[in-house]
Specification:
Elements (H helix, E strand, L loop, with lengths): L12 H17 L10 H11 L12 H13 L3 H9 L1
Helix pairs in contact: 3-4
Length: 88
Amino acid sequence: MLTDQQPKSELPIELAQTLLLGVIEQLVRFQAIDPKGKTREQLIKEVIAWIDPNDMGFVLDHTGVLRNEARLYKKKGWIELAYLLYAT
C-alpha cells in the first residue's frame, strides 16, 4: 500500500520483493543463473544483468484470439470456459 511518504512512482517494497523473487525463480528454473555458493548481493547483481530496460513493457495482445476461442466454446455449450476466456 502506498503511503503519503512514498512517491507514487515507486513500488511498495513487498511488491518489488515479490516481483524480484519471481524473476529469480524463473532464471534459476531455466538455468540462466546458478544461485549455489553466491551471496545475496552477487545473486541480485546477476539478476539485474539479465533485466533489459528496453524489453520492459513489451506486451502481446491476445484479445482477438481469446475472444474467438470463447465464441467457439460458447457454441459448443462450454459456457464456463467461454466466460473464463471472455474475462481474460
